Amino acid sequence: MKKFKYILFVLTFLFFTFSLSAQKPRFPKPEFDSGYMQPTPITPEPRALAMEYFDVLILLLVLSLATYFVLKSRSRQGVLWLSVFTLIYFGFYRNGCICSIGSIQNVTLSFFDSGYAISLTALLFFLLPLLFTLFFGRTFCAGACPLGAIQDLVVIKPISLPKWLNKTLGLIPYIYLALAVLFAATGTDFIICRYDPFVGIFRMDAKFHMVVLGISFLLMGMFVARPYCRFLCPYGVLLSWMSRFSKWHLTITPSKCIQCKLCTNSCPFDAIDFPTNEKEVIKSGLGPKRFITYALIIPLWIAAGIFAGAKSHVFLSKANSEVYLAELLISHPELKNDQDNIDIQTFFSTGKSMQVLVKEAEVIRQKFYIGSMIAGGFLGLIIGLTLLNTVVFRRRQDYEPHKGNCFSCARCIDYCPVEK
Q1: Whose CA is closest to 111, among 184, 189, 190, 179?
Q2: What does the DSSP assignment read for 101-147?
Q3: Phi and psi torsions of 401, nearest 5°
Q4: 354-389 and 321-331 are packed helices; what angle lies between their axes, rounded to 10 degrees?
Q5: Which of 226, 133, 112, 118 is nearest to 173 (CA)?
Q6: pLDDT tens track, the chain, 420 positions
Q7: Which residues fall within 8 angstroms of residue 171, CB to CB, at 6 or more apart?
Q8: What's the start-to-end Cα distance of the chain, in Å?
């Protein structure tokens, strides 16, 4: 019954927000006789500096409250209503921008482009959740992330995925992170923002296919809880790394575990580790030899990743507008006089020659060559370590949340009968 009330509240709020956004603007868009189509902006209008600092203050306050609800009061209700506020403020009111997930690209570009100065607010949105996670676990995911909040509120009947599928799909965020950093470092695109599945819902004015993508994720999230957070979010990779070293972290039981097993099915994200069964470990046959074998082939995985990255850099570099335009004009020189191609006419209106364009494209492609090899080596390392982790068993006496995968949503707390 409670779950139905939450879902009804969310659906009512979405309908109300959509109705407001559907109202006619005060100043209508200008009409053109040439068939010009008004472009849809991908970022909100600039915000006053004082209001940007206010957003940082709100983020800091929400992170603090989420940490309090998770670690001190151990309140699932507190986390739930805090996530509703986050969805309203950072999601619908602030249109999902700027978000900590997208700030990865701002930080990356500031390292590789001397002409780009990252704003203090973007830097704080990137650092604050990581710092909180380093000390208190992924409380940012619990109540401070609008993308996580909108998914968490629609979980109805989650299913448990097989471990092998969880681990396989868990590699996708590393690929997404590598591509996001590569594209940002080369000045190609901010793909995290461009393909954010929920920004179309937050802004209510996105292209149709982006709205469909967001709705698809929400429908999937009714049964596969938080699919974006678990199997796509690139910022989640960094949060997972930080959370593994957290000194204070959510615990299922406030004191000693009594092995009641009531919490075994409480986590919709499959983030609870069970006590180690020594007999099953022995029967599996995964001993030191398998561990040594997997450890020794890690350099081979890295080498294979570097090789794959080097081979794919030409294809990846075509995502850059300058590289794409140079290849288009080289292969089809007759398009130079195409008056209908806005990209080509815009380039020639700058006064640059074809030789300059080719040289600039060669520089960018060289950046992709180096960056793709680094990204490939990184992914090879991740695959090697993931395989190695399958043969590592840690002795556990109790039911414990996995520090890296736990979103600190506090659902499991309500299942534990042990009092403080």
Answers
A1: 184
A2: TTHHHHHHHHHH-TT----HHHHHHHHHHHHHHHHH-SHHHHHT-HH
A3: -70, 140
A4: 120
A5: 226
A6: 455 445 545 544 544 444 444 444 444 555 555 555 555 555 556 667 888 899 999 999 999 999 999 999 999 999 999 999 999 999 999 988 889 999 999 999 999 998 899 999 999 999 999 999 999 999 999 999 999 999 999 999 999 999 889 999 999 999 999 999 999 999 999 999 999 999 888 988 778 888 888 999 999 999 999 999 999 999 999 999 999 999 999 999 998 888 888 998 899 999 998 887 766 655 555 668 888 999 999 999 999 999 999 999 999 999 999 999 899 888 888 877 777 778 788 887 877 788 888 999 999 999 999 999 999 999 999 999 999 988 887 778 888 999 999 999 999 999 999 887
A7: 379, 382, 383, 386
A8: 27
Residues 6 or more apart whose CB falls under 8 angstroms from that of 193 comprise 42, 43, 97, 102, 105, 199
Residue with tokens 């983030």: 271
Tokens for 72? 């001190």
Give the DSSP letter of residue 157: S
What pTM value is reported for the model?
0.86
Q: Any idea which residue has 């506090």 for tokens? A: 410
CB 309 within 8 A of CB 337: no
Report yes or no: 400 and 251 within 8 Å, Cβ to Cβ: yes
Phi-psi region of 348 (alpha: psi -120 to 50; beta: other; left: phi over 0): alpha
- What are the extents of the domains in the chain? 2-15+51-262+399-415, 291-389
CB atoms within 10 A of CB 344: 18
Phi, psi (degrees; rounded to nearest 5) at 400? -130, 145
Residue given tokens 């109790």 in the structure block: 398
Angle at 68 between CA 62 and CA 71, to 5 degrees: 135
**What's the number of CA atoms in the CB half-sphere (13 Å) around residue 175?**
11
Closest alpha carbon to 129 in 251, 51, 242, 229? 242
CB 100 within 8 A of CB 235: yes
Contact 156, 13 (CB under 8 A): no
How open is the CA angle 386-388-394, to the nearest 5 degrees? 100
Q: Which of 69, 71, 98 is nearest to 82 (CA)?
A: 69
